Amino acid sequence: MLAEVAEFKDGTTGSHVRRIEEYTRRLALELGLDAETATAYAHASCLHDVGKVGIPDDILKKAGALTSEEFDVIKSHPRIGDTILRRNPSWTLARSVALTHHERWSGTGYPDGLKGEDIPLESRIVAVVDVFDALVSVRPYKEAWHPEKAVEHLKRESGLHFDPHIVAAFLRLYDRGELADMVASAKAEKPDPG
Question: Which residues pair with 139 in a beta bridge?
């Protein structure tokens, strides 16, 4: 429910949260994690953007490019999510995802500039699936990308933004057609009129 509150505020539908959850589960299994861990990661992924509830609507739903000041405000959402989720010890995994899913393999992400395997595995998984789903979905500030263009983006960013091992696993799923239903769900989604 908390995840859907964040999505509602963001101007997207709860289906984004459900897709991220399922992408995360499938990718964790492809990486060789057991079903229980994959399910735990999937549930935690639902709260990756919960901190967006603390971002003003005029910035969060802006149709055009953000100024550097506005982007700094957006970049505060991982810490807001961490603050919200730290209140309950059973949300430790979700808290990790909320705080670190914008870190980059190269160390150039935010909020802490974590690098490589210092970024928790669950967050490295969510980073890949969240970006892919955002690219193939309509957003207030962009049209949906063709899935092949989004795949090329993941390939280019492998080793920079994303863990190369996780990108390779995602591409195996994609190439086998095991993500086609998820892509179709994103394509069928209608943009929020605002």
Answer: 142
